[in-house]
Specification:
single chain; alpha/beta; 5-stranded mixed β-sheet; 8 helices
Length: about 280
């Protein structure tokens, strides 16, 4: 059974269906068993049909005996926060139909039980990034701490404490809400950080930092401890698709008129579908 990872969907339902069917047809034509399909977060928001997209991925996952799953992205967590009155809707949100849906509670329950990170042989899947101080195993364990908070009885209280840019660097001494917030920010929001692993959340629209800033993409930090693992992530449409040794970036800007991309982890082959320009800002 092969494993495919799909980039940020962001509510692009038609493109999601087309790409998944392409994956299934490709494996069927090769005489292979149905593949595992993993989505790298941001299933919803900004695209034209967040509700249908979320329903589709939920149905795929629930009927797959564990073959199909998704990690949580920042937009997915935003939906949970808005639904519980913790965050206001943004003018750029396209989640109103989810919030008004008859199956809203079932969709949100399924969503909050999703993992923050998934490990497959030689590959670690997250939405945003992995702090350079963390090994792959440590990232998986820390993701588990957030998963436990989201799945526990006090999960709404956790969401209330989740937002904020501090602490912006990891310490094993962190505890409580500050510890979980730092983990969430790294796994779902991080793009740039310093050589010391201090996260920056101001730069969003570029793949390159001003050299004078001392910032760099998190995966370029010298001595990054996940350099022995292929980290697979989305979240960064300005960076675009990159398939490199030990790194796969999968946000190819579907909602911005780019493509929706899937990479097979077994051989790093690529499948894509074109996307209309649903958003310009």
């Amino acid at each position: 059974m092969k494993t495919y990872v799909v980039g940020d969907l962001q509510g692009c339902h038609g493109e999601t269906v087309s790409l998944v069917e392409n994956i299934l047809d490709t494996e069927h034509a090769a005489g292979n068993e149905p593949p595992a399909i993993l989505f790298c977060g941001d299933l919803i928001n900004r695209g034209p049909d967040s509700l249908s997209t979320l329903r589709y991925v939920q149905a795929l996952s629930q009927g797959s005996d564990g073959r199909i799953d998704a990690v949580l992205g920042n937009h997915d967590l935003h939906l949970l926060a808005v639904a519980n009155g913790i965050r206001p809707e943004s003018s750029s949100d396209t989640i109103e139909h989810i919030l008004a849906a008859a199956d809203r509670d079932a969709l949100l329950h399924w969503l909050r039980l999703r993992p923050m990170a998934i490990m497959r042989p030689g590959h670690l899947l997250v939405h945003g990034g992995v702090l350079p101080q963390w090994t792959a195993q440590q990232a998986l364990e820390l993701a588990g701490e957030v998963e436990a908070a989201l799945r526990g009885d006090q999960w709404v209280g956790f969401l209330r404490e989740m937002y904020g840019n501090q602490p912006d660097r990891w310490s094993d001494e962190l505890s409580g809400a500050a510890r979980l917030r730092c983990i969430v920010n790294a796994l779902t929001r991080m793009r740039f950080c310093s050589a010391e692993g201090v996260m920056d959340f101001k730069m969003k629209e570029s793949a390159h930092a001003d050299p004078s800033s001392g910032l760099m993409p998190w995966f370029e930090v010298p001595g990054r401890r996940t350099s022995d693992t292929t980290v697979v992530f989305g979240h960064w449409s300005a960076l675009g698709l990159r398939i490199m040794p030990r790194l796969i970036a999968l946000d190819s800007g579907c909602v911005w008129g780019g493509k929706l991309s899937a990479v097979c982890l077994d051989d790093h082959s690529l499948l894509q579908v074109d996307c209309p320009e649903y958003r310009t800002v």
